[in-house]
Amino acid sequence: xxxxxxxxxxxxxxxxxxxxxxxxxxxxxxxxxxxxxxxxxxxxxxxxxxxxxxxxxxxxxxxxxxxxxxxxxxxxxxxxxxxxxxxxxxxxxxxxxxxxxxxxxxxxxxxxxxxx
Amino acid sequence: xxxxxxxxxxxxxxxxxxxxxxxxxxxxxxxxxxxxxxxxxxxxxxxxxxxxxxxxxxxxxxxxxxxxxxxxxxxxxxxxxxxxxxxxxxxxxxxxxxxxxxxxxxxxxx
Lengths: 116, 110
Prior knowledge:
The complex is a heterodimer of chains A (116) and B (110). Chain A has 116 residues and is mainly β. Chain A has strands at 4-7, 10-13, 18-25, 31-37, 44-50, 53-57, 64-70, 73-79, 87-94, 106-107, 111-115.
């Protein structure tokens, strides 16, 4: 148990559906991340939020829309996805402050997404 | 851009030592990490090392850092079947971003 919870654990959706992935942490962290992990590519950073502000968008298609209403919650809204978007989506959080202090990333269990 | 490389597969016999290697390109890396991912799970932090250190030991795990060559290794002593997993090397730069390698799949043979 890392303190980062993702729901749902598994999701199957059609290409015309709209769904949302949820991530929650009560570790007091200020930074939250979305990563995509697929068989074909290593861990890909998608979005970074620091103090609820988006600080990184790694050229992610607009069919993925993140939302960070507060420092404890992060969402990934999905709309008109493609089959190649099927992957494991991992959320992480870190303290996110200070370069001299270690702030390791804590990961959730991931949401296994299948687009049909 | 920043890049982290690892060999993709490693097989060892139970009881032997495993050494997983990693190279990175970002000379401004502050911390370097090793994460473990078991099937169907997220990534679990195993250990980390600050960039001004060259070695860190934690029970069966030994991390060696050669900052000049930008080479990081993880040694697992007395490898057990429960150590079978994917191991990710990661570095963190002066920003807050973590850059991960492709992962090394460790198979422990009986």
